[in-house]
């Protein structure tokens, strides 16, 4: 197989591209195994891959119920990947410094429709640094997550712009580590959901909503098992939702990378499996500036008034998400609500050198444009 092409002028995407290819290879192998060994699940697999309502197969698999559930889950993982592949393979290349700021960010109550502003359809978020988690007694590393739509009635994996979508799904890709060597021994997945149809949204509500939908697989009959599953969901959702909410803010730093223009000569349409990922840089303009300002202010400065002779240096308080009422009329009469990310604020800013720029706000970015090659999952 030829190595995947990397869009020109996008050296930052090399790592993201490598991670994406690992995801694709593993999920393609799982699809091949299902099609070769489990014919009874193929009707459901094809329905899910096409974004159609799921109709349970009537064929006898000859397997125990728990084994059937596990294989249907695998089919769902494959389907999430196929939906991503069909609508442009949009991959968010998240800057590591911006990611660190987002992980520290907080929010209280947000409008329930906050996720309707996701700029691309069924994107993949590649993490710059994996998150450590513990899954079923094994240490693991979360490498990224696919975002997809889900309609509960009828049961249907679908696209995030589908009008029938009532929850947003995240398929977390997790590397399981060997307990002795620390090497990657396997790749596993976990699907979590957040509601889209509520008036208001909170983190704890999202945890409860997800837990109710994974009980059959992860939660046992004891309170200890249930408590462990809730702890795992919190580990996964807290940083993931910070990233997801930021992507839905109207002041996000998300810029599509220039790509080479298509060749004018006529060529056959590339198959789904052969299309390159389309990268979107997230936080590559804001993240480094915030990081540089944080480092600049990170030293303690001498000063009077305390026994040690040292005052607390200028430092940043974590960023947070905030909702604003917009529209005509007085603020209390406005019905439309938007969400914005408020960058870290400074304490003891006067301690900074005179020529130091704290850079506390998100720079404005151009509105999302169409991919010059073709429409690849862009909302219009």
Structure description:
The chain is of the alpha+beta class. 30% of the residues lie in helices and 24% in strands. The protein has 8 helices and 16 strands. The strands form 5 sheets. Strands 1, 3, 4, 5, 6, 7, 9 and 10 form an 8-stranded mixed sheet that branches. It has a two-stranded antiparallel sheet with strand order 2-8. Strands 11-12 form a two-stranded antiparallel ribbon. Helix 1 packs across helix 3 and helix 4 crosses helix 7. The two termini are 35 Å apart. About 12% of the residues have low confidence.
First-last Cα distance? 35 Å
* Form type: globular
Mean pLDDT: 76
Order of helices and strands: HHHEHEEEEEEEHHHEEHEEEEEE
- Distinct helical segment count: 8
Report the β-strand fraction as a percent range.
15-25%
Class derived from helix and strand content: alpha+beta
Q: Could you estimate the helical fraction of the residues in percent?
A: 25-40%
Number of strands: 16
Rounded to the nearest angstrom, the radius of gyration is 23 Å
Assembly type of the chains comes to: single chain
Largest sheet: 8 strands, mixed
Uncertain spans: 4-11, 218-224, 299-311, 359-376
